[in-house]
Amino acid sequence: MIQTKRMVLGGAILAALGCATLSLVPVSAQDAKPDMHKPAVALQTKDISIEQAHAAIQAAVAKAVETKTKMDIAIVDAGGNLKAFVRMDGAWLGSIDISIKKAKTARYFDFPTGEIGKLSQPGGPLYGIEVTNGGLVSFPGGLPIKSGDEVIGAIGVSGSTVENDHIVATAGAAAVK
Q: In this predicted model, what pLDDT tens digit does every residue of 161-175 receive, in sequence order?
């Protein structure tokens, strides 16, 4: 009975906060005990390889040249750690940090940064998210990189308009197989 009330109250709090999903967690130490008869199994996660990261960078650079833009391009791995980076000749120094943060933001939430930006406007459900996680970027140019349906990393591009940043990031993400 108490556990049911806790779950209902927890659900009500999440609903009030506008959360889209509900995760049920054990409410007592007894519920949290692992099954000692089953062997513990490590999680199996995929990660972007250096070859895939280089392919994304090459495709993004090619698209930047085609669009006559000078870009900073960052690739992060499945853990959000910088895997590869290039600053094209003449690209803005200030865009280095922006490109890295776009990639991290896209990986942290497995969502395009431009879509996060739409949700983070005043009055929106994610308003203020930019100040979390050491600073996020919520405008276009950051995209998750997938292998099949699994996110293995992300790309962040900065150095031109957000529309061009997004076009170049899209080319980079599409190059990963």
A: 999 999 999 999 999
Helix (H) or strand (E) run with residue 83 in it: strand 82-87
* pTM of this structure: 0.78
Looking at the structure, tell me whether residues 82 and 28 fall in a common domain: no
Residues 69 and 27 grouped into a single domain = no
Instruction: Give the number of other CB atoms < 10 A from CB of residue 86.
Output: 17
Counting beta carbons within 10 angstroms of the beta carbon of residue 50, is it exposed (0 to 12), middle (13 to 18) or buried (19 or more)? exposed
Instruction: Kindly state the average pLDDT of the residues 106-121.
Output: 96
Confidence grade of residue 40 (pLDDT, cut at 50, 70, 90): confident
CATH of the domain at 79: 3.30.450.150
> Would you say residue 32 has pLDDT above 70?
no
At 61, is the secondary structure helix, strand, or coil?
Answer: helix
The answer to whether position 21 is within a domain reads: yes
Average pLDDT taken over every residue of the chain: 86
Residue 23 and residue 87: Cα distance in Å, rounded? 41
Query: Is there a single domain that holds both residue 106 and residue 142?
Result: yes
Rg for the chain, CA atoms, rounded: 20
Residues 30 and 55 in one domain: no
Residues 145 and 108 sit within 8 Å (Cβ to Cβ): no
Q: Which domain holds residue 7?
A: 1-34
Whether 103 and 56 map to the same domain: the answer is yes
